[in-house]
From TrEMBL:
InterPro entries: AB_hydrolase_fold, Peptidase_S9_cat, Serine_Prot_S9B/DPPIV. This is Peptidase S9 family protein. SUPFAM superfamilies: alpha/beta-Hydrolases, DPP6 N-terminal domain-like, Tricorn protease N-terminal domain. GO terms for molecular function: dipeptidyl-peptidase activity; serine-type peptidase activity. GO terms for biological process: proteolysis.
Amino acid sequence: MLGAAPPSLARPRNLPSTQDMRTLHRTVCRGALLALGAALSAAQSHAQGAGRVITQADYDIWRSIQGTTLSRDGRWLAYSLVPAVGDGDLVVRSTKGSTEWRVPRGYVGRPQLQPNADSGFTAPPPQFSYDGRVVAALTYASRAEFERARRGRRAADQPATSLAIVSLADGKVTTVPRVRSFAMPREAGGWIAYLLAGGDSAGGRGADSARTPGVAAATPGGTPRPISGDSTARRGGRRQETGATLVVRELASGNETRIEDVTTYAFADSGRWLAYTTASRAESHNGAFVRALGASGIGAEVALLSGKGSYRALTFDRAQKQVAFVSDHADSAAARPRMSLYQARLAATPTTRALVTPAGLAADRLLSDRGVSFTRDGSAVVFSVTPPRLDSIPADSLADKAVFDLWNYKDTRLQPQQRLEAARDRGRSYTAVYQLGTGKWLQLTNDSIPQVSLSEDGREALAVTNVPYALEALWGEGANDVYLLDTRTGARKPVARNVRFRAELSPAGRYVVWFADHGWHAYDAQSGKTTDLTAKLTGVRFDQETWDTPSDPQPWGVAAWTADDRSVLVYSHYDVWELDPSGARPAKVVTDSVGTKTHVQFRLVSTGGARGRFRGGDATVVDPSQPLLLSAFDDRSKESGFYRERLDAATPPERIVMAAYKFGAPIKAADADVYAVTRQSFTEFPDVWVGERLDRLTKVTDANPQQKQYAWGSAELFEWANGDGVPLQGVVYKPANFDPSKKYPMLVTYYEQMSDNLYAYDAPAGRNRINPTVYASNGYVVFTPDIAYTTGYPGQSALKSVVPGVQAIVARGFVDPKRVGIGGQSWGGYQSAYIVTQTPMFAAAFLGAPVANMTSAYGGIRWESGNSRVQQYERGQSRIGATLWDAPMRYIENSPLFYVPRITTPVLIMSNDADGAVPWYQGIELFIALKRFGKEAYLVEYNGEGHNPRKRANQLDIDRRMQQFFAAKLKGEPAPEWMEKGIPFVNKGRDQLAPVNAQSTATSAGQATLPR
């Protein structure tokens, strides 16, 4: 039997720490079922009490809902409730009753502790069993234990992961400690397999045992992953991998089978087979194995191939009739063993054969141990070959040699890009396909044709190459040549050249479609004919007419295909169109032009969710006999909702719901008409609503009940015209308890188009941005205007959009014109820097990672990618639209640096020394110029940070400094010491800013105040 939950798991009160531990069973008061339509008719603005002002002390407790999933029968909802920082819960909730089970998940709200590092930890989602009897999820140690381990800094001290298996019948939780991954069959209930963490394997392939198992950690979606060696030893100078213990548990009886030394494993979708590979200290026990699963339990181990060597990349076909894997067993005696590709047919007595061996490969090719799969119909195996790995040159071998990078004008990639991509280049591989029917295989990709996509049967492949346009792509948009490959013969047919946008192969491989010359084109693989599918249409555009950079407008995109490649569905700005790829049938607007007439944008919705966790067809293929679910967004009012439409009906789309909210993507139960969807507004957190219809939903979560304790602002749409008379929209966020007779300070922040966020919830958080929720709670009006751009004049475009908007709001009478500040990050930082050179309107400005001098930035490098910044200005976001030599004055006129003497606004600049997007020296150039002219300026440089601070301490620090800076300049509060005296370098690390309450003088009753 399984052991008790580890002491590290924080349990609900009064729960026994035994296997029979039960989670908190709470009866949630739900009241009468409220129709969504009735809820939507209520006034969105609600009475705001005095409320506490939001401070940094409140950020960590704000929770998010992650990994939402429905059981197949729709009776249960599961998700993780995760605080910004701290311990979270797995919540399992009845969709129709009031039953709710909670299991502590441990420290899932983990902030990033290192600068410029990848994003923080995200726990994998919970997974329901196919029969809906249990839900399983990984759990972790508490935050306190992680902090103790971090201080200890020993690998042995790191807290282990556990697995929680929750019985939906009674809430009973089975907790298994020390796990790595877990899996359940996608189309059968009754089984779960989990791999124990390192050190829990017996170290040899002994007989099956029924000892207490450890559990395997789930990867996202419950997909098992290979183990990179829990322990290693060296024999004969070679690194030896060893596996861990796999426990296979029959959920109904609790019977368990332990299998030692497992490295990878997978269930067949049907639950009839379990396959796994092993690596043992006794290498003769290594192998690839299967076991049959059935009502009588788990069968005996059957070896597909065993003995000395490595076994990897195990995979089933969709019909679960065969398995493929790779192994170097046949070459294991070599100093550097080479892999072979194997196929095994599953039966009472499985048979295994080698498909590709080293003898069948070219001398400069090896078979890769990654990327093995079957085609959809199981007729072919897709695998990869690779050249021998090019090892790095040891640094000590160059001690007395010249070390340099050579930049050559013929290089298609600059040296910084080559440096970043060196690991990829050394480990590059090429896609190949083995036809099981003919016994022949073909390498599909190479250095000249780096990309292919296969049809469902693997007989056709779409080959795309950008090699002929690689130099052009350094400065322009790049392009591709497109070919169709016969994977059986290698015959290659040219489809199209100089294609700017993505070409797509139809699911059955009959057609290739792509966008060019403002229309959709299709190539028929059978006839070799190319057809312009939209040439006869007038008054409709399929590229983005709202495109505002000096480059080719992108298409709105492909929505889906219908079965048998009969139709392809594409988008215009507002509507969905059906095109016949053969060109025989005329184009049809599926949504009856309702979108265009009403300014409502329709898009297909894939209600994947739970279904996506089980094999159920491709999201890109729709059944024309079934109704289509469409999301809807009104780009004038910003309301959203859902419509229903049919391909086989000539009727307008049926409205389900439209409301003053932002709806998330709905999840539908696989076997029931039950939906789960989030809805949000500026004042309403995106909690989950469930129901059998999208217009009759019931709220079943309450992630942040503490919100009602705080002073919360409101949001409203605001309209004005820019300096050229172009109508614009923006959002005005007003403070809690807004009084139109008062004069408030106002902050203006922007990027490009932000008005679509009218109904977006913005959780309190500290970063290098003006958070409307936080600042509105602290007594500011916040304005986020849209900007209309004119190519060649990005700075003036921002000025002519923002200033008239600010003037229009000031004219309303509730903003003090002498207390208006602006701020933005990146592109918003540049625009803010430009604006303050042109007007004295603003009393303070935050400039996050601004470009100050386009002439010097033009020739720089985007260090995060290694690419040149030239394209940014000639064709991209900076919107100059010409080279520096063709239009030098445009670069100068749009550069804030050349207008620094005009600036009267105090500025706070953030420019980080590891910024990979905007050159760090841009902020320095601006600061030096400001200092040279005696302007009030402060520059914060976070060491080792990139474009946006990722280390949480740095995020909170810039948030505090921004709040202090704006409070001093817009509220008249005393300036902090760092503004008055600076921080000498010798005090670096000693002077740590204390948390500060950004509210003005008075605090609300009950508010926690923090030291200055």
